[in-house]
Amino acid sequence: MKKEELITRDKKHIWHPLTQHKTAAAPLAITKAKGALIWDEHGKQYIDGIASWYTAMYGHCNEDITAALNKQMQELDFVMFSGFTHKPAIELSERLIQILPDNQSKIFFNDNGSTAIEAGIKMALQFHHNQGKRRDTLIAFEDGFHGDTFGAMSASGISSYNGPFENFLLKVERIPIPTDETIDEVLGKLDIILKSNSCAAFVFEPLIQGAAGMKFHSAKGLNMLIKKCQEHDVLCIADEIMTGFGKTGKNFACDYLEHKPDIICLSKSLTAGMFPLSITSCSQQIFDAFLSNETAKGFFHAHTYSGHPLGCAAALAGLDLLVSPHITERRKYIEGEHQKFLKQIENHPKIENARTLGVVLAIDLKVETNRYGKLRDEMYKYFMAKGVNLRPLGNTIYTLPPYVITNDQLHKIYQSISDFLNS
Ligand SMILES: *Cc1c(COP(=O)(O)O)cnc(C)c1O
C-alpha cells in the first residue's frame, strides 16, 4: 500500500493556529531541519529566513544545544517547581541576571510568550493591589502584539482577530509609537491618559513591533515615555520576546534605553527553538511588594511546566552560543550585509520604506493590503517557490535570519527579494 502523505493525514484531525481552514492552502509537511535550512516531505529545501518565528537563532538542530538537552534528560527530566528547585533553573536565573539590565533581580518562570506577558501584567496589577491601591488600566502602543491569552490580547493593538473577545478584555488606553518628531505629541497623550485613569502598567515591545510589520520607533522617545510612567508609579513591562538575545544588535533592546523597565518578558530564542519556555523578570522593589505574613499577598500563579529543566538546559547552551566568538562574528556580518542590501534597494520605485536594525531587515511596499490579504499570500508563495521561507506581514517583507546563516544563503534571500521587486 502506498504510504499516505503527511498532508493527507494532517487534514483528518489537526486544527492549525491562525488558519481559516475553509480557504487556507494546505500546510507544508516539514521532515528535517539543520542550520538555516528546513526540508519538506518531498525533499525540497528552504532557507528559514525568519528563524521559525525568531526562535532558532543558533540554527536548527544545533549540536551544542541538542547535546545539552541530551545530557539534561539523562539526569533530571522534570520535577514540579513549586516546593522544589533544581540546578538548571538556578543557573539560568544567575546567567540571565548577569546580562539583563541592572535593576532586574528576580526571575519568574513560565512556559511561553503569552504566559510571560500574562504573569507580568498580573504582577503589575497585584503590586498595586498589595499596597492598597486600585489601579485598573493598562497603557499600550497602538498595533502592539503581546500574545493570545486574555491579558496579552488586551494589551495587543492588532485587534482584527480579537473581535469576538473584545467585551471580555482588560481596560487599556493606547498611545502611538513615538518618532523623534512626534515625541512631544505622544508625551502629551500619555499625560492625559495618566491624569484621567488609574494606570497600573505600560506594556510595550521595545524599539521594534514585530507582528505589526517590524515597525521601528525612537529609543529616545520610548525612554521619555518610560520615565514619565515611572514618575507616576506606573510599572513598565518590556516585551522582549521577539527582540531579546541580540536581534537588535545588543543583547536586549532595553540596552538602548537609559530608563529601564521594571518587568521584562523573554521567550522565543531564549531556548533557541528547542523547547517552550519563558521568563518574566522583575526588580527587587516588585518582588518585595509581595512579601507579607499574609499568604494571599504572594504571587499565586503557576504553570505545571514552569522552569522545565530541559528548557533551562537549552537556554543555558543558547547563552553560551550568544556570546561565542563565532556567533558574535556572524551577527556583525549579517548586520553589515543588511546595511549594504538596504542601500542597494531603498530607492526602488516599489518601496515605501526600508529599514534595518541588528539582524532585522524590513521593507514596506507602496501598496495598501490586509494583514493576511491576497498580496501577502502571493508574496509568501513566490518566496517559498524560490526556496526561501519569508512570511510577509501585510505589505511588509522582512527577514530575521538565524545567526548561523551562511553567506550564500543570506545572499539568496536578498536575491529573492530583489527578484520579487523587479518582477
Ligand atoms: C511571539 C510573541 C509573543 C507571544 O509568544 P507566544 O509564545 O506565541 O505565546 C508575545 N510578544 C511578542 C513580541 C512576540 O513576538
UniProtKB/TrEMBL annotation:
<feature type="binding site">
    <location>
        <position position="239"/>
    </location>
    <ligand>
        <name>pyridoxal 5'-phosphate</name>
    </ligand>
</feature>
<keyword id="KW-0093">Biotin biosynthesis</keyword>
<dbReference type="InterPro" id="IPR015422">
    <property type="entry name" value="PyrdxlP-dep_Trfase_small"/>
</dbReference>
<comment type="similarity">
    <text>Belongs to the class-III pyridoxal-phosphate-dependent aminotransferase family. BioA subfamily.</text>
</comment>
<feature type="modified residue" description="N6-(pyridoxal phosphate)lysine">
    <location>
        <position position="268"/>
    </location>
</feature>
<feature type="binding site">
    <location>
        <begin position="113"/>
        <end position="114"/>
    </location>
    <ligand>
        <name>pyridoxal 5'-phosphate</name>
    </ligand>
</feature>
<feature type="binding site">
    <location>
        <begin position="303"/>
        <end position="304"/>
    </location>
    <ligand>
        <name>pyridoxal 5'-phosphate</name>
    </ligand>
</feature>
<dbReference type="InterPro" id="IPR005815">
    <property type="entry name" value="BioA"/>
</dbReference>
<keyword id="KW-0032">Aminotransferase</keyword>
<keyword id="KW-0808">Transferase</keyword>
<dbReference type="Pfam" id="PF00202">
    <property type="entry name" value="Aminotran_3"/>
</dbReference>
<feature type="binding site">
    <location>
        <position position="391"/>
    </location>
    <ligand>
        <name>substrate</name>
    </ligand>
</feature>
<keyword id="KW-0949">S-adenosyl-L-methionine</keyword>
<dbReference type="InterPro" id="IPR015424">
    <property type="entry name" value="PyrdxlP-dep_Trfase"/>
</dbReference>
<dbReference type="InterPro" id="IPR005814">
    <property type="entry name" value="Aminotrans_3"/>
</dbReference>
<comment type="function">
    <text>Catalyzes the transfer of the alpha-amino group from S-adenosyl-L-methionine (SAM) to 7-keto-8-aminopelargonic acid (KAPA) to form 7,8-diaminopelargonic acid (DAPA). It is the only aminotransferase known to utilize SAM as an amino donor.</text>
</comment>
<keyword id="KW-0963">Cytoplasm</keyword>
<comment type="subunit">
    <text>Homodimer.</text>
</comment>
<feature type="binding site">
    <location>
        <position position="268"/>
    </location>
    <ligand>
        <name>substrate</name>
    </ligand>
</feature>
<dbReference type="GO" id="GO:0004015">
    <property type="term" value="F:adenosylmethionine-8-amino-7-oxononanoate transaminase activity"/>
</dbReference>
<feature type="binding site">
    <location>
        <position position="53"/>
    </location>
    <ligand>
        <name>substrate</name>
    </ligand>
</feature>
<dbReference type="InterPro" id="IPR015421">
    <property type="entry name" value="PyrdxlP-dep_Trfase_major"/>
</dbReference>
<keyword id="KW-0663">Pyridoxal phosphate</keyword>
<protein>
    <recommendedName>
        <fullName>Adenosylmethionine-8-amino-7-oxononanoate aminotransferase</fullName>
        <ecNumber>2.6.1.62</ecNumber>
    </recommendedName>
</protein>
<comment type="pathway">
    <text>Cofactor biosynthesis; biotin biosynthesis; 7,8-diaminononanoate from 8-amino-7-oxononanoate (SAM route): step 1/1.</text>
</comment>
<feature type="site" description="Participates in the substrate recognition with KAPA and in a stacking interaction with the adenine ring of SAM">
    <location>
        <position position="18"/>
    </location>
</feature>
